[in-house]
Amino acid sequence: MICPSCSYDNLPGSEVCEKCLQDLTQLDQPVAQDRVHRSLMEDPVSALPPNPPITVHVETPLGDAIRTMLTSNIGAVLVLDANAALAGIFTERDLLNKVAGVLDPNDRRPVREFMTANPETVRMTDSLDFVLHQMDAGGYRHLPVLAEGKVVGVISVRDMLRHFTRLCNS
Known about the structure:
170 residues; alpha/beta; CBS-domain; four-stranded mixed sheet; 30% helix; 18% strand
């Protein structure tokens, strides 16, 4: 990395110039090359905007939670506790891994027994690259969105793809 102050050729990744001690960290910042890249790096979750949350209560019977997903044509429902705080998420993956072939889908046990408790969340102010990283690192297709600690939406991989496709086609 070439120091802009003294032109010394530093080792890649150096934080300061070995010769003049100039801070080099700002040179490591990625630069957007197109509007998709710019959106990924700069736009917050609120730019999409996220889908309104479809929720069920922790005591909702499993069969009712599944019917809610089917009638709403969604892949996940957020599970709220008695204080309307996020307790978990029940997804298609939970259904396949914990219910299918094991239980009757109309089972009356509460959805809390099958949900993923304490799911990863994102905030309305988080950047889209952060959201995409969270999805990739955790293998998630849906993330609850919070604002001031309250559930305000859900963002899905499909939402992200739709957003970037619009940017490519405009």
